């Protein structure tokens, strides 16, 4: 899977809000200590908990496997493309259901997707007013602080990419408990990007960030490295997929490629041999 | 829920895709009642048959008005898929009921045959049932049940076209048969129950798919 073992928080990282984060791999059916019992988690307001969450789309490869993540304060997700950052953010926000595992999130969540659509006919003021009524929340001056310069009454399809992104951010900041932001700096000018960092201070937020805007936030790297094991195909793919630590299994002719978390590679190798597979390569 | 419905309705209105089914409805209604359309209930059968595909089309427009990414924001803002899909279904049904009312009133004004209050309410009920059935079919095959608009259009078109030759084997057939024979039938009520169940099932299937 894409997580590092317990204690994977970047050394020396300081959380802007002084809150905590813990990420851990757990054995199947074993609850993370902080996840047991009721939904009062860690004593923090606005915490989001993903407990042994796994996700696959249809019958495709696993995008996330057995991820346990408890977050409050400002937390940044990093990792290479395709490591499941956007999927994790969608699960945390409530857009996607995990295939297995459970999610506990606060009531008021704000979400900014990776790409805000550019063909919206509604005006920015209408859009924000409607979503404010849906949330029963008062608007905040986020647009002004981010330096929005377009027309609030024109269709959003006429806005520049940066201004449309500011509208997307403004609707998310209507939420009071948790912000889930997927690459929120996309299209923003340097001044707006700096202002967004300032707006995030003291908030509980889960943010994907390739560009290092939030140096002082707690960081979670979803890449975490991996080991690829080539096996001759003796057992069914399901038996291999069920092994703890296996991120993906793909069939290639007469061989099977298994991608495994580094800390579980020895276990997977031993189990594969026990199942009658022969190992072609490990790298 | 009211705020959410208002937002979704405003988005449909701004999108203008609702104009196509609306104009088809108005155009065909104009043709149907441009001359003597026959006895009151019999005259209603044509407009009821028209309302079924038009409201299915309208439901598809409502369900797919927001693109997938903006729908994600709405889902998070509203607190989950069930609320958004329920609100979208209520907007689609509300718009369909407006058309049903218009279709029931139209011949009262234009048809040379006099309408009693009873005939009007039977006609209104029949049109309401057809609107519910059409909305249910449209919602059942729209996003999030089918992600692609191409599949949605094909599925809705196939179901709508297949419904007519099946005649009295379908709830729509029960309604059209009752109107065509100029009589009131309990089967219209059952068809209405089926329509409500279909809309509810479409929401439930959508929630399950997300």
UniProtKB/TrEMBL annotation, chain A:
Q: Is tRNA processing set as a keyword in this record?
A: no
Query: Where in this chain does the record put each ABC transporter domain?
Result: 48-256
| Pfam hit, one | ABC_tran
**Which is an annotated GO molecular function term of this record?**
ATP hydrolysis activity
Xref: Gene3D superfamilies? P-loop containing nucleotide triphosphate hydrolases (3.40.50.300)
Q: Which UniProt keywords apply?
A: ATP-binding, Nucleotide-binding, Transport
SMART domains, sorted: AAA (SM00382)
**Name of this protein:** ABC-type multidrug transport system, ATPase component
TrEMBL record, chain B:
Q: Where are the transmembrane segments?
A: 44-63, 84-108, 120-141, 148-167, 187-207
- State the name under which the record lists this protein: ABC-2 type transport system permease protein
- What organism, scientifically named, is this protein from? Lentzea fradiae
Task: Give the keywords, sorted.
Answer: Membrane, Transmembrane, Transmembrane helix
Task: Look up the domain of life of the source.
Answer: Bacteria
């Amino acid at each position: 899977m894409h997580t590092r073992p317990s204690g994977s928080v970047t050394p020396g990282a300081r959380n802007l809000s002084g809150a905590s984060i813990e990420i851990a791999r757990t054995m199947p059916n074993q609850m993370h200590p902080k996840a047991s019992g009721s939904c009062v988690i860690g004593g923090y307001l606005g915490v989001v908990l993903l407990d042994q969450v796994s996700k696959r789309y249809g019958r495709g490869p696993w995008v996330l496997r057995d991820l346990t993540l408890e977050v409050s304060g400002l937390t940044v997700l990093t990792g290479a493309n395709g490591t499941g950052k956007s999927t994790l953010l969608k699960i945390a926000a409530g857009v996607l259901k995990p295939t297995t595992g459970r999610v506990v999130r606060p009531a008021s969540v704000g979400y900014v997707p990776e790409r805000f659509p550019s063909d919206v006919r509604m005006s920015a003021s209408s859009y924000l007013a409607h979503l404010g009524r849906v949330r029963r929340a008062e608007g905040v001056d986020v647009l002004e602080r981010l330096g929005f310069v377009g027309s609030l009454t024109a269709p959003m399809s006429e806005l520049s990419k940066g201004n449309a992104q500011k509208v997307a951010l403004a609707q998310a900041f209507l939420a009071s408990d948790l912000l889930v932001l997927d690459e929120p700096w996309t299209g923003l000018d340097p001044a707006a990007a700096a202002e967004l960092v300032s707006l995030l201070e003291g908030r509980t937020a889960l943010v994907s960030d390739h560009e290092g805007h939030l140096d002082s936030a707690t960081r979670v790297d979803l890449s975490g490295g991996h080991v690829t094991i080539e096996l001759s195909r003796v057992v069914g793919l399901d038996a291999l997929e069920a092994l703890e630590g296996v991120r993906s299994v793909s069939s290639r002719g007469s061989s099977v490629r298994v991608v495994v978390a580094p800390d579980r590679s020895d276990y997977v190798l031993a189990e594969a041999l026990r199942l009658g597979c022969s190992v072609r390569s490990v790298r | 829920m009211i705020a959410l419905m208002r937002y979704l309705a405003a988005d449909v209105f701004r999108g203008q895709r609702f104009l196509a089914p609306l104009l088809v409805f108005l155009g065909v209604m104009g043709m149907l009642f441009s001359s003597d359309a026959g006895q009151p209930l019999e005259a209603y059968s044509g407009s009821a048959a028209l309302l079924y595909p038009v409201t299915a089309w309208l439901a598809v427009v409502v369900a797919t008005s927001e693109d997938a990414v903006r729908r994600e924001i709405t889902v998070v803002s509203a607190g989950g898929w069930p609320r958004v899909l329920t609100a979208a279904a209520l907007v689609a049904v509300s718009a369909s009921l407006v058309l049903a009312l218009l279709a029931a009133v139209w011949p009262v004004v234009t048809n040379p045959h006099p309408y009693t209050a009873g005939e009007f309410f039977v006609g209104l009920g029949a049109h309401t049932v057809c609107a519910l059935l059409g909305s249910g079919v449209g919602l059942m095959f729209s996003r999030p049940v089918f992600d692609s608009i191409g599949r949605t259009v094909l599925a809705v078109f196939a179901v709508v076209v297949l419904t007519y030759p099946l005649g009295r084997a379908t709830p729509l057939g029960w309604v059209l048969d009752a109107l065509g024979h100029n009589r009131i039938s309990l089967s219209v009520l059952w068809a209405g129950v089926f329509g409500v169940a279909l809309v509810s099932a479409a929401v439930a299937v959508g929630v399950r798919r997300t």
